[in-house]
């Protein structure tokens, strides 16, 4: 198909401050065969009015408002389910897309289910790019302990949704999508910054980062994601065993202060679990494993 329909799944919640700038950057894409699906999660500000105004001026925009707040993952799952394009790009409400973003991702996805790119930080004195010295890991183990796929950088084939839905209620939807694509070797990385990713105090990630119990939250999210990964219905038996044991080791280390099993697994599988970390000899690797297991 020479000119496939690309759906944009844009979720909003009290995003009136930056939403117009994001919508302008999507409407202004060099690739124009777009369907823009906006799902608002019961905002209390002018977000819905802004989208309604844009929809009145651009027939590609459709607007849905949730009667009840579905939360981060639930809202993105609904937005994905409402799209109809062969390809789906995910959008936050407060970023800025560079003009050739959709076109570049579409040209480079090949036969993969998911492609993601880099992004540049803007706002709150932020600078630099999100992924530094990053190479795409060779297998799924490189994503189970830390997520490198950020939703606002992704383009999906619809085929992925048949494997990924429903999205787990707890954790991060983009981590889940990235894991499934990586597990099936259907993932690609385009090392270009195609999004200006806004850092500000009202964003979801910054709300999490500013909490006093950020370490505990990080532990719980990773533990929950490991549990979901272990339950993925298309896992081979040996992979289910690996992730299940890693999940048990992670839980023991963080909740019961019994780090030995996790230390052993991190040491043994260091290169697979941390593929973009520096190469280490045995003593340095052992020291890293000890610090990691005791630090979660």
Summed up:
The chain is α/β, with parallel strands linked by helices and 296 residues long. Helices cover 42% and strands 17% of the residues. Helix 1 links the parallel strand 1 and strand 2.
Walkthrough of the structure:
- The chain has 296 residues and is α/β, with parallel strands linked by helices.
- The chain has two domains: 6-201, Spore Coat Polysaccharide Biosynthesis Protein SpsA, Chain A (Alpha-Beta Complex), CATH 3.90.550.10; 207-295, no CATH class.
- Helices cover 42% and strands 17% of the residues.
- It contains twelve helices and eight strands.
- The chain has helices at 19-27, 47-57, 71-82, 101-108, 161-164, 173-183, 204-209, 214-230, 237-255, 260-268, 270-273, 282-295; strands at 6-12, 34-40, 61-65, 87-91, 96-97, 114-122, 154-157, 187-198.
- The chain has an eight-stranded mixed beta sheet with strand order 3-2-1-4-7-6-8-5.
- Strand 2 (34-40), helix 2 and strand 3 form a beta-alpha-beta unit.
- The radius of gyration is 20 Å and the shape is globular.
- It starts with 5 loop residues before the first strand and ends with a helix.
- The mean pLDDT is 93.
Name the CATH superfamily assignment of the largest domain: Spore Coat Polysaccharide Biosynthesis Protein SpsA, Chain A
List the total number of helices: 12
Strand segment tally: 8
| Percentage of residues in strands | 15-25%
Fraction of residues in H or I helices: 40-55%
- The helix/strand series, from N terminus to C terminus, equals EHEHEHEEHEEHHEHHHHHH
Distance N to C terminus? 47 Å
Low-confidence spans:
none
How many structural domains are formed by the residues?
2
Please, what is the average pLDDT? 93
CATH topology of the largest domain: Spore Coat Polysaccharide Biosynthesis Protein SpsA, Chain A
Give the oligomer, counting copies of the same chain as homo and different chains as hetero: single chain
Main-sheet strand order equals 3-2-1-4-7-6-8-5
Tell me the overall shape.
Answer: globular
Give the name of the CATH architecture of the largest domain: Alpha-Beta Complex
* Structure class: alpha/beta
Largest sheet, strands/sense/barrel: 8 strands, mixed
CATH class of the largest domain: Alpha Beta
User: What is the radius of gyration computed over CA atoms, rounded to a whole number of angstroms?
Assistant: 20 Å
């Amino acid at each position: 198909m020479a000119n496939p329909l690309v759906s944009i799944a844009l979720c909003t919640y009290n995003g009136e401050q930056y939403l117009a700038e994001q919508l302008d950057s999507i409407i202004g894409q060099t690739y124009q065969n777009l369907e823009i699906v906006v799902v608002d999660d019961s905002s209390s500000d002018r977000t819905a009015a802004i989208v309604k105004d844009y929809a009145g001026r651009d027939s590609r925009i459709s607007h849905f408002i949730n009667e009840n707040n579905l939360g981060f993952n639930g809202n993105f799952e609904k937005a994905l389910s409402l799209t109809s394009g062969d390809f789906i790009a995910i959008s936050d409400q407060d970023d800025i897309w560079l003009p050739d973003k959709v076109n570049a991702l579409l040209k480079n996805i090949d036969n993969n289910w998911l492609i993601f790119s880099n992004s540049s930080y803007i706002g709150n004195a932020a600078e630099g790019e999100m992924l530094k010295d990053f190479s795409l890991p060779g297998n799924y183990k490189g994503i189970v302990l830390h997520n490198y796929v950020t939703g606002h950088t992704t383009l999906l084939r619809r085929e992925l949704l048949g494997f990924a839905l429903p999205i787990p209620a707890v954790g991060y939807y983009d981590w889940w999508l990235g894991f499934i694509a990586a597990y099936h070797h259907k993932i690609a990385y385009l090392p270009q910054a195609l999004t200006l990713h806004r850092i500000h105090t009202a964003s979801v990630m910054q709300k999490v980062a500013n909490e006093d119990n950020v370490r505990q939250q990080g532990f719980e999210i990773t533990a929950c994601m490991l549990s979901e990964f272990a339950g993925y219905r298309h896992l081979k038996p040996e992979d289910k065993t690996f992730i299940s044991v890693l999940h048990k080791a992670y839980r023991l280390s963080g909740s019961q202060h019994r780090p030995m099993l996790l230390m052993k697994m991190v040491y043994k599988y260091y290169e697979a679990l941390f593929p973009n970390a520096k190469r280490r000899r045995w003593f340095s690797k052992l020291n890293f494993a000890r610090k990691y297991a005791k630090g979660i």
